[in-house]
Design a protein that fits this description.
With 297 residues, the protein is mainly α. 38% of the residues lie in helices and 5% in strands. It has helices at 3-17, 98-104, 114-120, 133-151, 195-205, 215-218, 220-233, 242-247, 252-264, 270-287; strands spanning 48-51, 54-58, 74-79. A hairpin with a 2-residue loop joins strand 1 and strand 2 (54-58). Residues 34-77 form the Chitin-binding type-3 domain.
Length: 297
């Protein structure tokens, strides 16, 4: 019997007995991932959500219990997206989609654009792209939670207390304060301040920030770059960079220490610490990953 006739006979047999034909070399693909589980969403029986590369279906009403949960409310529907949840296909490969970004910052100032953030990613390719997908999303959530806290939800572009402006010039630096005594106030998502920080950030990013610090409040990409620069390279008052805190498992609490140190940590301002932690927990919920350990400093 010829190969063609043999295949035709096999096809007829499949139809006759109701078998599912599997063609060699054509692997079955996993189901598409449904929308990521979110801690703030109410799920009713039959509603589906994905988390950690698997789809789940709620058996009854639930809110705040992450799949797979511990009460039996979630039915595991199996792997999705090929068995893991890869970073979404977004510009720059960022693990936060524009829709998720907008969900995180519903009242943000139009200055803080998603496109500006994505454009800034190239300055530090390891940012939110180190380790597993879970670690990448945790780092992105930690960064964005801290920027939320620093800017009132990405509302403020510059520091609101103008009385502080003259204090951010250290004339003892060899380069002085060429933009003026009051020019180095807080700007951007992590409120870059002091002439020595503008100088260091400018040198690292190839930008004239010491002589033109206003670039940070006039160019969204520059603003995001300065925030990522601080996150990736500066220990601040802490013992490690915020990036290292997240990728080594030291925890979100160490990112707070790197940004605001004893002003908030060690009992300095527990309400401010809790504000950051709460926002981080909300954001990892949006991204469908656990918060991890050591949330407080």
């Amino acid at each position: 019997m010829s190969r063609l006739r043999a295949l035709a006979a096999l096809a007829a047999l499949v139809v006759a007995v109701g078998l599912v034909a599997i063609i060699p070399g054509t692997p079955a693909s996993a189901a598409a991932c449904t929308a990521s589980w979110q801690a703030s969403t109410v799920y009713w029986g039959g509603d589906q959500a994905s988390r950690g590369g698997r789809n789940y279906q709620a058996k009854w009403w639930t809110q705040g219990e992450a799949p797979p949960g511990s009460t039996g409310v979630w039915q595991d529907l199996g792997a999705c997206g090929g068995g893991t949840t890869p970073p979404p296909t977004n510009p720059g490969g960022f693990v936060v989609s524009e829709a998720q970004f907008n969900q995180m910052f519903p009242g943000r100032n139009s200055f803080y654009t998603y496109s500006g953030l994505v454009a800034a990613l190239g300055a530090y390719p390891a940012f939110a792209r180190t380790g597993s997908v879970t670690v990448q999303r945790q780092e992105a959530a930690a960064f964005l939670a801290n920027t939320y806290h620093e800017t009132g939800g990405l509302v403020h572009i510059v520091e609101q207390n103008t009385a502080n402006y003259p204090h951010y010039c250290d004339p003892g630096q060899p380069y002085g304060c060429p933009a003026g005594q009051s020019a180095y106030y807080g700007r951007g998502p992590i409120q870059l301040s002091w002439n020595f920080n503008y100088n260091a950030a400018g040198n690292a990013l190839g930008l004239p920030l010491l002589t033109n610090p206003w670039l940070v409040q006039n160019d969204a990409s520059v603003a995001w770059k300065t925030a990522i620069w601080y996150w990736m390279t500066q220990n601040g008052p802490g013992t490690m960079t915020a990036h290292n805190a997240m990728v080594t498992g030291a925890g979100f609490g160490q990112t707070i220490r790197s940004i605001n140190g004893s002003i908030e940590c060690n009992g300095g301002n527990p309400a401010q610490v809790q504000s950051r932690v709460t926002r981080y927990q909300q954001f990892v919920g949006i991204l469908g990953v656990p918060a991890g350990a050591n949330l407080s400093c």
